[in-house]
Every structure is written in C-alpha cells, then in structure tokens.
Amino acid sequence: MTQKRDIFDDHFHDECGVFGVFGHPEASNLAYLGLYALQHRGQESAGIVSSDGTDLHLHRAMGEVEEIFQPHVLAELPGSLAIGHTRYSTAGDKALLNAQPIMIDCNKGKLALGHNGNLTNAAEWRRKLEHRGSIFQTNSDTEVIVHLIARSQARNLSGALGDALNQVEGAYSLLVLTQDELYAVRDPRGFRPLVLGKLPLPAGGEAWLVASETCAFDLLNAQYVREIEPGEMVRISRSGIESIHFAPEKPHQQCIFEHVYFSRPDSIIFGRSVNESREMLGRLLAKEHPADADIVVPVPDSGVPAAVGYALESRIPFRMGLIRNHYIGRTFIEPSQAIRNFGVKLKLNPVRNLIDGKRIVLVDDSIVRGTTSRKIVRMVREAGAIEVHVRISCPPTISPCYYGVDTPTREELIASSNSPEEIRRFLGADSLGYLSLPGLKQAVNDTEGKFCTSCYTGNYPTDLVQLEVREGHAKTGDTLSGNLSEARQAERPVAVQHED
Ligand code: SF4
Fold it and tell me: Which atom of ligand 1 is closest in space to residue 399's alpha carbon?
C-alpha cells in the first residue's frame, strides 16, 4: 500500500515561504538557496520568477526546491531580480495551476506575485469580480489581489497595490516583482513574518533581500536589517528603498504559533529569537507542570528546544530518548502484514537503553488530532518506560486557523471537544500538562497584546472569520457561548494527573 508521509505528521502545517532578491547578478541562484532554507514552510510546490530588466522568466513545479531547480532550470532564469515561493496549499487546491509566484501581464505591466498568508474575504471578492467580468485562472486567493490591482485607477503600481490591499482582509506577506522593482508588503495586522536583509557585492554596493525568515539570510552570509513592519510596503528600485504605509493602523496580530512550532529555531521572528522563545516555553511549562521523573525526552525535532528549557528549569536530565529518521521519502510501501505503530516508527525510534525502567517527561510542542501522540506514548512504554508524563509547550489547540495555516477542521482537533482528562486517557499517559495562555504570551514577551492566539481561544480578530466561525458552529450544533467557555479554559494552566 502506498501512503503519503504526512498522514503521520500530526501538526498544523505551515503555509508558504517567500524570498526576494534585488540587485544581484545571480538573483535566481540566490532565490533557490533562500527557498531551500525555507523549505520547512512548504513542500508541495515551488517557483521562481526572475527579471533581466526587460522580461520576466518563470519556472514552477510540484515537489521540493532541490528537485525542481536543477542547474539547467536556473540557467533559464536570468537577471538581477527574482522572487521565489515555496508552498503548502492553504487556499485553492494542490494543482500546479495554483503554484506560485503567479505571473501576469496587465495594464500595470508585467508582474509576478508570491503570497504567504490567507485572505479571509477572498471568496466574497471572487464572486463580486466574476460578476463584473473578471476571469480567474486559478482558485487561489492570491489571484483576487491580481484582479484588484488590474482594476485600480491608480497611476503607479504602489498606488494600485495599496488600492487592492486595502480591499482585502486577512493575512498577507507579499512579494511583487516587476521588470525593475521589488515590492515587499505585510498586512496591517502582521500575521505572517517578513524580513529585510542585505548582501554586500564583491564589486562594491549591495543586493537587497527579503525573506519569510532570517535563517534564509544566514545561508547566504547576508545581514538581517529589520522586519517589514505591519502595514508597510517597501519598494526597492534603482533609486533605493522607499517605505510606504499604505493602510490605516490596526492592532497587531503576529502569529504566536510561529514561535511555538512553524519557524526554524535559528530564525529571528517578530524581532525575537525563536529558540529563546521555545526554551522559555519549556522553562515555564516546568514551573506550571512539574513532574517527578528521571529524564526529559523531546519529541524530535520540534519538541527539542522546549524540552531543553524544561530540563534546565526542572534540573531533570535531558536525554534524546527518541531518534528521528530524517530521510523518509515522499511515499513508502507498507508490508502487507501490519506492523504496530508502523507510520510513527518510520519517523521515530526509541533508544531503549535510555528509556527502559525510567520515569519519562515527554515534551512536545502541540497536540492536534492526538493520534500520533498516542502512538508515541505507546512506543515509549513498549521501550520500557515505567511512567510517561506528557508536557505540551502551548495551550490546548481548540480552533482552526484562517490566516494561512493548514489546519484540520474544528471537529478533528482533539482539544475542541475533549477535556484534558479525556485526552490524557486517549494518549495513555500518566499525566498531561499544557502550558497556559499567559505562560505562552510570557514566553514570547508579548507585553502589549501583539500576538494572534485565535487557535487557542476561538476568538478571531477579523469580522468575517467570526461569521465563518458562527456558521461552522451552526453546522456542528455548537454554540458561540461554548466557544467562549473554551476561550476561558485556555486562559488557565491545564494539567491532569492519572490517579490509578
Ligand atoms: Fe497563528 Fe493560530 Fe493565529 Fe493561525 S490562529 S495565525 S496559527 S496563532
């Protein structure tokens, strides 16, 4: 039987990564390397558009960056400007048609767009635009921006972009390439990250870079300059850098899950080291939910920094009691005779001599459906653990994301309809402890309420999403008050101890 590997990856999935280059003779090679560093943000398709000053050149394909961009492909992408995009489908289906960047030739000239995020009013705009005669070629929400740019009466592209973006709602970190300009834009709430960097040129001067995460700059020995601000449009041209504030200010809603799980720990996101946040998540988790145990074991790779923090705070030794196989292919053949926990075993294997006879604190970053966590707990017990205390470095995930993250439906989220005690029993753990919402905010130093926490509270910062949530509840028979009580539940530390 052939199966996709992500069946066993019980996480929210990151959306997309974007990378832009202005003023480097090897722009498409740099875009390729930048996308390679951002591969964790999307593995379904990737694309690069380059500009040689007179024309745009595009290559997009399904698959991972390394397999798509062979040297002969990059040779067909000439010029000193480029944008790249790597995608995990969040809106629109998974076909190549929806791969990005999107390239168009409209009344504003030739343009290419790469978008990280999700527009919450795209369906409404699509209906309106089709009614007015627009013909859509993809079913991606990004194409709405393209049609709104084309319809703008503004004389220049920055004006048309501002017009278009002021009509859409939701999350966008957006790169736009023309023949001789690069635009980097972040929505006024700043849901998704976007950073500016520069790279000195051997002949003098410098190239400008834009990326979803700073880890892409590190690979190129480039310098991190600053974040693109929420509500800022940065226009990079031969005349230099221009910063345009194109939208009225809105309360910031930076995605807190970037610090919990999505971003690489070696990145600086929203001005703060991701690794520092994750270690602090683990330290606060240890304070809120201590455990009488012999070793702290992370669920690798994403659980490692929080487990380090837990071990440092609790003074319980840290041990790599689970080893991850990094070389799982896209598909694999399962033997016809069923092997227990087969999918999880492909990915993780316990180190029996570390675990046997020990009381374990098992640290992970999140529980989504719970099915994978249950298999891991069972696997650790089969390796000889005498107690398993599960610790999760964020609050219970009770609601889907509408801002550019691939999430299961609300019904599939185990914490949306099960109490922590029910989840503990489902996992087969001796105890279960989730970090509280105040703990999570403290770990990312959110003193001013600038982070989105909607997937933990069920309260969304955009009006349309609130409507969608009510509709969703009507479908499932839930009530809004149920939603609010869950929000209150997420406010306090959640811990469950097995009493047997
Ligand atoms: Fe991030 Fe959750 Fe907000 Fe989505 S709902 S932007 S995953 S914090």
Answer: 5
